[in-house]
Design goal:
Number of strands: 6
Strand order of the largest sheet: 4-3-5-6
Largest sheet: 4 strands, parallel
Shape: globular
Structural class: alpha/beta
Order of helices and strands: EEEHEHEHEHHH
Radius of gyration: 15 Å
């Protein structure tokens, strides 16, 4: 999460979250899958970075606790992950526990992206937030990692 006095990324343990006061309230919290988004936001936006949580792949118990605390304080969430089957599964898992809006993470954003990663491999799965995302991924057959759309994500955080 980017926050704290220095507005630098820091790791919160489950133990630290037992007494945490987060101070986000009903504000928007952006959530990403990969640490490169968090590090780049800290480098480029510094003190101006809004609340940003990185789940770092499959969320840990500490991530779940942090998201639960933020939700209890009234925070809203938007999520972006990798456009691949693993990224879709992580998004589905998050959505089962906390409501979130897609943050450039739907069929429209995928189809509009001019960047291309490697071939899409693995077992397909539906995106619970967008029934058109799976067909779009299957048609194009290309995975797009968050790093490839980093400039757009950082612009949104500005």
């Amino acid at each position: 999460m980017v926050g704290g006095v220095q507005r630098e990324p820091f790791v919160l343990t489950l133990r630290q979250l037992t007494t945490a006061r987060l101070g986000v309230g009903a504000g928007m919290v952006s959530v990403c899958e990969n640490p490169i988004v968090l590090a780049s936001a800290a480098d480029e936006l510094g003190h101006g970075c809004p609340p940003l949580v990185c789940v770092n792949g499959q969320p840990s118990a500490a991530v779940w606790r942090l998201l639960d605390l933020l939700a209890a304080e009234g925070a809203g969430f938007r999520y972006h992950g990798d456009f691949d089957w693993g990224g879709i599964r992580i998004g589905n898992t998050l959505r089962e526990r906390v409501p979130w809006d897609p943050w450039r993470f739907d069929a429209s954003a995928y189809s509009a992206s001019a960047v291309a990663g490697g071939p899409l491999t693995g077992r397909p799965t539906d995106a619970t937030w967008d029934p058109e995302l799976r067909p779009a991924l299957e048609r194009r057959g290309v995975r797009i990692e968050e790093e490839l759309v980093l400039p757009a994500l950082l612009e949104d955080l500005r």
